[in-house]
């Protein structure tokens, strides 16, 4: 610290012309006091461990107003006078800093004392609450003891009420009757029987029931010769049953997985119809028609060609 201040003073007074021996001695004394005050501030802000850390105020080595009067005869405006003025300013600033530190320490003590009082009050309140809760628990246990020893009254069991089955709605009953009226084929080819039964249900406009049969064939007989037809009829059952979103998936799967199947071209045609029902952009519908005519030009029946032409006009395909 001393070397730092000495260097600072030297920088401040570079080029200064020495005054009288008495003036220089006075300035040196004040610099010594200034260094002592700086050491006091340093101990205040950074107290050594175990020293000064117990909120004890450290008085500065130099108090304001203790400087001896400047000896007369010092030339006015000389470098020594300028140096003295600067030292005065530094001493004033250090004195203000010391006062601020003392105020902060005082406020810190007030905060610590207030927190300690709050802690004591809170602990007392918690202790009182715990005592009240324990007393209530003991009283509650005592009050419930006679109830535990009471003899329960015999209860006469009531006769069980027989469960009442809710009859199926008339609509479902009528639908079940219609489905039961559809003849189920019974041949040596279970896959063929499943397809034919599903087709008959579709013809009777029992679309959910037909959907079940076609899904069963696709799952149980994936290599059956009717698999392409079953996938196509699954899509038609979904489309006619008001599920165009699912129908699109069924039609597309038939074309994508079995492009050489005997009903792949029909699936493309009905895929376009499902897109129309979903109000999809005309450009998407036209792309399906283009794919159909490009891939299966020889498989389109006259009726399907006429339907494709009408669909192109409706969708304004180029």
User: Based on the structure given, which CATH architecture of the largest domain is correct?
Assistant: Alpha Horseshoe
Based on CA atoms alone, the radius of gyration comes out at 52 Å
- Indicate the multimeric state: single chain
The domain count comes to 2
- Regions with little confidence, pLDDT below 50 for 5+ residues: 1-20, 72-76, 136-150, 159-170
CATH topology of the largest domain, by name, is Serine Threonine Protein Phosphatase 5, Tetratricopeptide repeat
Shape: elongated
Structural class by SSE content: mainly alpha
Largest sheet: none
CATH superfamily of the largest domain: Tetratricopeptide repeat domain
Q: With helices defined by DSSP (H or I, 4 residues minimum), what is the helix count?
A: 11
Overall pLDDT confidence:
75
State the CATH class of the largest domain: Mainly Alpha
**What distance lies between the first and last C-alpha atoms, to the nearest angstrom?**
94 Å
Q: Give, in order, the helices and strands.
A: HHHHHHHHHHH
Percent helix, as a range, is 55-70%
Count the E strands.
0
Strand content: under 5%
Molecular structure report:
- The protein is mainly alpha-helical and 318 residues long.
- The protein folds into two domains: 113 residues; 143 residues, Tetratricopeptide repeat domain (Serine Threonine Protein Phosphatase 5, Tetratricopeptide repeat).
- It is 68% helix and 0% strand.
- It has eleven helices and no strands.
- Helix 7 packs parallel to helix 9 and helix 8 runs antiparallel to helix 9.
């Amino acid at each position: 610290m001393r070397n730092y201040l000495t260097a600072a003073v030297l920088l401040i007074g570079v080029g200064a012309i020495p005054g009288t021996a008495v003036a220089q001695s006075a300035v040196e004394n004040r610099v010594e006091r200034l260094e002592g005050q700086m050491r006091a501030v340093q101990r205040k802000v950074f107290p050594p461990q175990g020293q000064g850390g117990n909120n004890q105020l450290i008085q500065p080595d130099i108090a304001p107003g203790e400087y001896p009067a400047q000896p007369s005869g010092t030339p006015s405006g000389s470098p020594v006078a300028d140096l003295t003025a600067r030292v005065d300013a530094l001493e004033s600033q250090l004195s203000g800093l010391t006062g601020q530190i003392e105020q902060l320490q005082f406020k810190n003590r007030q905060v610590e004392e207030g927190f300690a009082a709050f802690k004591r009050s809170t602990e007392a309140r918690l202790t009182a609450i715990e005592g009240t809760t324990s007393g209530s628990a003991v009283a509650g246990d005592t009050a419930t003891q006679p109830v535990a020893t009471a003899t329960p009254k015999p209860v006469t069991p009531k006769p069980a009420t027989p469960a009442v089955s809710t009859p199926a709605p008339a609509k479902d009953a009528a639908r079940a009757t219609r489905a039961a009226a559809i003849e189920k084929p019974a041949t040596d080819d279970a896959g063929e029987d499943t397809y034919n039964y599903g087709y008959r249900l579709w013809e009777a406009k029992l679309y959910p029931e037909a959907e079940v049969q076609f899904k069963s064939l696709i799952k149980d007989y994936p290599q059956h010769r009717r698999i392409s037809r079953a996938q196509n009829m699954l899509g038609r059952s979904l489309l006619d049953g008001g599920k165009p979103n699912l129908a699109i998936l069924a039609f597309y799967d038939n074309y994508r997985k079995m492009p050489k199947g005997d009903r792949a071209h029909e699936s493309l045609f009905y895929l376009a119809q499902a897109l129309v029902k979903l109000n999809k952009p005309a450009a998407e519908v036209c792309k399906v028609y283009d794919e159909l005519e490009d891939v299966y030009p020889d498989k389109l029946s006259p009726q399907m060609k006429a339907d494709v032409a009408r669909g192109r006009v409706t969708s304004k395909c180029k």
